[in-house]
Amino acid sequence: MKPVVVMTDSGKTQTDEVELIHIPLIGIEVLPVRSDYQEHYDWLIFTSQNAVEVFSQNYDITANHIAAIGSKTKSALENMGWTVDFMPSAYNQESFIVEAGSRFDGRNICLPVSAKARPALFEFLSARGLVDRIDLYQPAPSRSAAEQIHAMIEAQKVDVLTFMSPSAVDAYYSLFTPVEIPVVAIGPVTYRRLTEYGQRCVMPEEATKEQMITKILEMREQNEF
User: Fold this and answer.
1) Whole-angstrom distance between the N-terminal and C-terminal Cα of the chain?
2) Which has the closest alpha carbon to 201: 215, 211, 217?
3) In sequence order, which residues have a C-beta less than 8 Å from that of residue 160 and are 6 or more positions away?
4) For the chain, which terminus, N or C, has the lower number of CB atoms within 10 Å?
5) 125-138 confidence digits (pLDDT tens)
6) Strand ranges in 12-80 using DSSP code E only, listed in sequence order
7) Where in the chain are all domains bearing CATH 3.40.50.10090?
């Protein structure tokens, strides 16, 4: 039998290798659109697919260059006909900072993000150029989704639980204690948040959902669940 894997984000991943059940723990609440922004910047920087979608629907801003964190973010931008000029090799703010070089020095930058975005990237860019941070949306945790996942785990209907963000981790573990089934984090930031709650977990070598599935299959082959 295929392992049953709960994906706790809103993206619809497709695979024939495992049975995926999508139960998003986090929705988004779009914030009021700002009017005090410039029409053009040197750089537009996107850190998530959600940011691309909300930004494109609500803001008419152009830029000389576009940067992205993550392959899904890059794909969302390219689907809109935008060219991505810079993307770090690993899909997190830390890699972006390490690999940024001098390309943002003295530049006028627009950073459209979640209101709950970690501050590391904003602080890094602010020390080098002029940064206009636009808070596009804020995460809205779903208690009913957390309760649904918990009930499925209690009924032994789930083999593996996955998390794609610290906010999703908070949405579940603010209500429930660590689970005994395998838990997979998409990357180091989410991994650290899980360990803060005392949850044992693993993560793939590359921060993608495809690699998470590969990791789950490896665990299955090694009889880890």
Assistant:
1) 12
2) 215
3) 3, 4, 5, 6, 18, 181, 182, 183, 184, 216, 219, 225
4) N
5) 999 999 999 999 99
6) 19-22, 26-30, 40-46, 62-68
7) 4-25+142-221, 29-139
